[in-house]
Amino acid sequence: MISTEEFQELRPLLFSIAYRILGSVAEAEDAVQETWLRCAISTTPPASAKAYLSAVVTRISINVLRSARVRREEYVGPWFPEPLLTDPYQDPEQSAELADSVSMAALLLLERLSPLERAVFVLREVFAFGFPEIASAVGRSEGACRQLVVRARRHMDEGRPRFEADRRVRDELAERFFDALREGDFDGLRELLAADVSMVADSGGKAPQWAKGFFGAHHVCRVLAALLPPFVRIGGVVEPHQMNGHPGAIFRDQDGKVINTWTLDILDGQIQTIRTVSNPDKLGHVGPVRDAWAVLRETRQAGRAADSPES
């Protein structure tokens, strides 16, 4: 039997595996908890606690993902993974790979894979598990797992996201972006945006939706110029924060409640993509959530008041 101490030591790894397979913080936490419950009733001590628990959480995650796929096909508007503030699993030798594998862009690319391909790819390419361990985890032969990895790697390579390799450069550009945003320096802001930048939101039909998104530096700047100054005037706060291993921010109201999160994809010294998660169902783990519709109404009222002749 695995002790509580052993399980707690491995919990960060188990969560990180489950999150990369599922793209959901809540579902990953549930998968880890279910793993512990199954472990608690097992009376046979495993040869390796890490291999055993990783196999259990992988199988649970595959089953959850299969049912989640149906819900995601019926999802209102674009679907993004739940934002992850901090990856609990750290490995200094793989820090860059771990950060990129948990990025919004990489997780969206993983959505193209079948649940089995996704699980095998995550175990092998992200966490460097051996094929005997992977085969045991997913109930396939080692040869079949090797084929699954080859197929998954081919799909991933076809659309593999590219990011600014230098984390310091990436963070400095994001800092300039959010400074310009708060200060209303939209000329400076535009210089930081790629000409074909895209700004897309996941609201799930439960928060204001930006149609299919905004595309191009001109349109994105117009939207930001219309919304950000009045948002700041009503006490809104833009709090820069690493999101899914990349620069991003948490937007809060005057009471500190969460409105949405932003994640930035940065390449060649410019921001290529801004992804916003505003679906309240995906933000509870970030903090108490505010009604985004109410914030939008207050922001628009502040904007109209600022534009009126009497102001």
User: Roughly what is the average pLDDT, rounded to an integer?
Assistant: 92
Q: Quickly count the domains.
A: 2
What is the CATH superfamily of the largest domain? PhyR, sigma-like (SL) domain
Look at the helices and sheets and give the structural class: alpha+beta
Beta-strand percent range: 5-15%
**End-to-end span in angstroms?**
70 Å
Biggest pleated-sheet summary: 6 strands, mixed
The CATH architecture assignment of the largest domain turns out to be: Up-down Bundle
Q: Provide the CATH topology of the largest domain.
A: Butyryl-CoA Dehydrogenase, subunit A, domain 3
> Spans with pLDDT under 50 lasting ≥5 residues?
none
- Helix content range of the residues, please? 40-55%
The CATH top-level class label of the largest domain:
Mainly Alpha
Rg over alpha carbons: 21 Å
Strand order of the largest sheet: 2-1-6-5-4-3
**How do the helices and strands follow one another from N- to C-terminus?**
HHHHHHHHHHEEHEEEEH
What does this structure look like?
The chain has 311 residues and is α+β, with helices and mostly antiparallel strands. The chain has 12 helices and 6 strands. It has helices spanning 4-22, 25-40, 49-73, 95-101, 104-110, 115-126, 131-138, 142-159, 167-183, 186-192, 217-233, 292-307; strands spanning 193-202, 214-215, 237-240, 248-252, 258-267, 270-277. Strand 3 (237-240) and strand 4 (248-252) form a beta hairpin. Helix 1 (4-22) packs antiparallel against helix 2, helix 2 (25-40) packs across helix 3 and helix 3 (49-73) crosses helix 7 (131-138). The longest helix has 25 residues, at 49-73. The N and C termini lie far apart (70 Å).
